Amino acid sequence: MLLSLVSALVIATQTPPAPQDAGVISTAPREEAVETERFREAVAYANPMPRGAPEGDYPLVAWCEALVNGHVALGETLTNGDELDLDIIRLGKLEAADFRAALDVAEPRQNAASRAAAAAAAAEASAKWTPLVGQEEAVRSQAFGLFFGLPGRCEHAARRLRDNITTPPATPADVGLE
Q: Among positive and negative, which fits the CA dihedral 20, 66, 36, 146?
């Protein structure tokens, strides 16, 4: 566990590459990018999930999308017009759209049980936000500000769905962490 936390800290302190549409040309070899991705995936899949989070990639991405959509919806009820809140809402919508795109691409490959698990996971995640909607604005604002985000596994599960990756994710041993 400590090794996973240290590894996550190392990853978090690395400067992310500039987006390709920013006019920056990546000079890193593709193998390096693949290895970095495998390392991050290994750390994400090695860390424990929050209670109630599904294990399978398809239901997990549905759960992640529902959590983000609920957070965005709660933020949209706020009337303070805070720039940071508006930016968090904008980024949340982008993240939710990414999850939705991954789910849409993978849906035809899912069996009925996986689709049902995804629907149940999304309903359970959405329900977490329901009690907050009727609260006074100060309570909604505090809940919106205290949302700690998603497990790192969400983004990797979405990528795996989108790219139809069916092999097991990398493990800490696979990337030299154990």
A: positive
Mapping DSSP to helix (H, G, I), strand (E, B) and coil, where does residue 153 land? helix
Residue among 80, 75, 78 nearest 90 (CA): 75
Q: Are 91 and 150 in contact (CB under 8 A)?
A: no
Torsions phi, psi for 28 (to 5 deg)? -75, 140
Instruction: Please tell me whether residue 45 adopts helix, strand or coil conformation.
Output: helix
Per-chain mean pLDDT for the chain: 84
Question: Measured between alpha carbons, how far is 49 from 67 in angstroms, rounded to an integer?
Answer: 14
pLDDT band at 29 (very low <50, low <70, confident <90, very high): low
- The pLDDT of 18-39, averaged and rounded, is 60
Fill in the DSSP letter of residue 178. -
Give the confidence band of 31 by pLDDT, cuts at 50, 70, 90.
Answer: low
Question: The tokens of 82 are what?
Answer: 């805070």
Nearest CA to 40 out of 156, 148, 154 is that of 156
**Per-residue pLDDT at 69:** 96
Spell out the residues 6+ positions from residue 44 whose beta carbon is closer than 8 angstroms to its own: 151, 152, 153, 155, 156, 169
DSSP code at position 79: -
7 with 177: CB under 8 angstroms?
yes
pLDDT top residue among 152 and 8: 152
